[in-house]
Amino acid sequence: MTLPAADSALGKLMATLPRAGRVVWIGLRPRRDVPMDEVDEAVAVAGVGLVGDRYTAGSGERGITLIQAEHLSVIAALSGHDEVQPAILRRNIVVSGLPLVALKGRRFRIGEVLLEGTESCDPCSRMETALGDGGYNAMRGHGGLCARILEGGTIRRGDAVVALADP
Known about the structure:
The chain is an alpha+beta fold. It has a single domain (19-163), classed as PK beta-barrel domain-like (M1 Pyruvate Kinase, Domain 3). The protein is 20% helix and 32% strand. It has 5 helices and 11 strands. It has helices at 9-15, 69-79, 86-89, 126-131, 135-139, and strands spanning 21-28, 37-39, 41-45, 49-50, 64-68, 93-96, 107-110, 113-120, 145-151, 153-156, 160-163.
């Protein structure tokens, strides 16, 4: 994704965030079709993924998946539920306080880990089973962000999520 020039009016607006976000939930998918493991921390390996997650087999641009905490209530409302637990959405990291869409095409840090937002994390057909009829559509536009891990380290619940200035 090509972002507007940093010195353009739109580029300045897109680069301005009101505050850092915060990691509120972390989950690992050990295998397909098994429940996620909720953890307090996860080790991120550059170019690979999260240790213990089934996507560590060279997932490249989708090394880690993130979803915005504020969207969980929207997904719940659109799918006819009182609430939605993060584990059924099968994203690795739930972030609060920061619009994830602003990180697409940008570098950012979660604690000591350097990431780059690569693409929207669109829902898959499994959301029909997880959320019921219409679950796929309930998640459209709210599925989160995929990111590539550029520098590894440990991600912990409570870590700050900070967008970096363009190099």
